[in-house]
Each structure stands twice: as structure tokens, then as C-alpha cells.
């Protein structure tokens, strides 16, 4: 540890010695070295989703009624007209700032596949097959997979995803990571897989897997609406884009930095951590979203 510490100091001093003479006469040069650059998601002139959009849900595997209600209540909260501070709907309103986006989401049909019709190990093509059971234009089908279902690429490269078909209908998938990879897909409600093992936040609904799904559902929905066909808002490669929420990964409150989610609210009775309130007072922890008006990651608290 000692040698590492001294090496860090040495490197810092070496870098400083290579800089121009930073005296009081040149303070602006030092400031420019550490000033953060604006985060820009470029609009690639493709179609975005707008208008009244129906969300059809496919529940694949074993979900309890309470687990389903947590996720459905979140979806119904997106367009609820509430004056509650830090509301879920105020989080979603940031979407309206994206050029050409003005949409209202409503939960439509729900399909329960509790018999695991395609087995408990799914490929990406299986997700599309499940989504195609209920999908048309002006609709998004969201596939939820339970904790005992393995999905190709789950947690190795993704906690959820969204896409579209050649027929131009959009779909999304989110899996319950409770038993497979909660440290990656349910952070900060679970200790991280890597890095400092700081205590996790308390799950707002008492279910780490489902509350983690809310975080990832919020992420893929924002991406679906603002970049449905790989030519909307994103930064980087179209095959691995940074989108409305993934550009702000790990930020949940003011003062966030890598490994620390930021300051969030705490329930005075249960100690549960949250930053958003939905229908019937249900609490959620939602990630920051990129605000195109300020070119920053916007949080609710």
C-alpha cells in the first residue's frame, strides 16, 4: 500500500512538472484542465416514438402478484397527474424535452407465461418471439423474465435491452437479477460485484430484484422512446450506444461519483431509499436522465 501511495504522488508530481508554469498570472489554464465537458447525445434525425403508446407486458416465469403490482404501478406512474414532490411523472417529463418526443404511455394487454413455454434458458431470438405475441405499431411490448430464467448475455453485458424488428415495432426486455447478478443489475440496492464493498441502499419496496428491475425498466423505456430504431438520440456507436439513461449510469442523486449513487431520500419509518414517488404513494429509486436543454444528467433530488 505504501509503495502504491508514493507512486501515485510521484506520478502526480511528474505530470505537474510537465505542465506550463501555473502561477497566479495564469489561473484560467489550470481551470481549463479540470473543467468538465458537456455531455452531448447527438440526434441522428431518425423517427422517435410519440403520441399515445400502449405498453403490452409479457410475464415470463414466476412473478408474485405483489411483484407484478410494483412494476405495473411504476408504469402507471409515468403519466400520472400528481403534484407530489419528486414524482415519477416529473422524472418522465424530461423525455418531452427531446426533439420530436411527446408521448403518453398506458399499460395494455398482459400475458402470463408461468409454464416457461420456451424453457428456462432463453436466447435473444426467444425474447423477440415472446415480444411478438403482442406487438403492433404504436405499441411497445415489454418482456419480463423471472429470477430463475437465464437470458443470453444477462449481466455479462446487459441487465435489460430494447430493440426493434424489420416491421418497425419496438420491444424491450428486463430480467430479475436477484439470484444471478444483483451486484451488477440491482446496484445500489445490493453490494457491487467489484470495487469497494460499501453498504447497499435499502430497497424501497423490500424486494431487491424487483426494485432493480424498476431501475432497468426505466433505463430501457427511455432508450426505446428516444432511440427506437438506432437512429435517434445517442452518443458513440449505434451498435453500443449511450442513450438517455445509460449515458448517466450510476447517478441517482446529487453528488454522485463512481461507486457512490449520490444523496437520495430515506423513508422515516422503514429506512428505505428512494428518490421518486408514484401512484398510491409507492416509492422508487430512479436513475438520472440526460436533459437535452442543459446537456447534463438530471436527478430528482
* Strand composition percent: 15-25%
What is the number of independent domains?
1
Q: How is the biggest beta sheet arranged? A: 5 strands, mixed
Q: Unreliable stretches, pLDDT < 50, 5 or more residues?
A: 1-35
What is the averaged pLDDT score? 86
| Backbone structural class | alpha/beta
Number of helices: 7
Shape: globular
User: Span between N and C termini?
Assistant: 37 Å
* Number of beta strands: 15
Estimate the helix proportion, in percent: 10-25%
The SSE string, one letter per element, is HHEEHHEEHEEEEHHEEEEEEE
Using only C-alpha atoms, the radius of gyration works out to 21 Å
Describe the model.
It is globular and about 45 Å long. It has one domain (52-298). 24% of the residues lie in helices and 20% in strands. The two termini are 37 Å apart. Mean pLDDT is 86; it is low at 1-35. A hairpin with a 5-residue loop joins strand 7 and strand 8. The longest helix is centred in the C-terminal third of the chain and has 19 residues, at 208-226. The strands form six sheets. Strands 3-2-5-8-7 form a five-stranded mixed β-sheet, sandwiched between helices. It contains seven helices and 15 strands. Helix 3 (65-77) packs parallel to helix 7. The chain is of the alpha/beta class.
Amino acid at each position: 500500500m505504501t509503495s502504491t501511495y508514493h507512486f501515485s504522488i510521484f506520478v502526480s508530481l511528474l505530470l505537474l512538472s510537465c505542465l506550463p508554469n501555473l502561477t497566479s498570472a495564469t489561473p484560467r489554464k489550470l481551470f481549463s484542465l479540470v473543467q468538465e465537458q458537456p455531455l452531448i447525445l447527438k440526434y441522428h434525425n431518425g423517427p422517435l416514438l410519440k403520441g399515445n403508446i400502449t405498453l403490452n407486458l409479457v410475464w415470463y416465469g414466476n412473478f408474485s402478484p405483489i411483484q407484478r403490482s410494483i412494476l405495473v404501478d411504476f408504469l402507471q406512474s409515468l403519466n400520472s397527474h400528481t403534484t407530489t414532490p419528486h414524482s415519477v411523472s416529473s422524472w418522465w417529463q424530461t423525455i418531452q424535452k427531446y426533439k420530436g418526443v411527446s408521448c403518453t404511455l398506458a399499460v395494455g394487454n398482459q400475458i402470463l407465461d408461468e409454464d416457461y413455454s420456451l424453457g428456462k434458458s432463453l436466447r435473444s431470438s426467444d425474447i423477440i418471439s415472446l415480444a411478438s405475441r403482442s406487438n403492433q405499431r404504436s405499441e411497445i411490448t415489454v418482456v419480463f423474465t423471472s429470477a430463475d430464467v437465464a437470458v443470453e448475455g444477462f449481466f455479462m453485458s446487459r441487465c435489460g435491452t430494447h430493440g426493434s424488428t424489420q416491421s418497425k415495432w419496438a420491444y424491450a426486455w428486463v430480467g430479475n437479477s436477484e439470484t444471478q447478478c444483483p451486484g451488477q443489475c440491482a446496484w445500489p440496492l445490493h453490494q457491487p460485484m467489484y470495487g469497494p464493498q460499501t453498504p447497499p441502499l435499502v430497497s424501497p419496496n423490500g424486494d431487491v430484484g424487483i426494485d432493480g428491475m424498476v431501475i432497468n425498466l426505466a433505463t430501457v423505456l427511455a432508450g426505446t422512446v428516444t432511440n427506437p430504431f438506432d437512429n435517434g438520440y445517442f452518443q458513440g456507436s449505434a451498435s453500443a450506444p449511450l442513450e438517455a439513461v445509460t449515458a448517466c449510469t450510476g447517478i441517482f442523486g446529487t453528488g454522485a461519483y463512481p461507486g457512490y449513487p449520490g444523496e437520495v431520500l430515506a423513508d422515516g419509518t422503514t429506512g428505505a431509499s428512494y428518490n421518486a414517488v408514484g401512484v398510491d404513494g409507492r416509492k422508487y429509486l430512479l436513475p438520472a436522465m440526460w436533459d437535452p436543454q442543459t446537456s447534463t444528467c438530471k436527478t430528482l433530488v
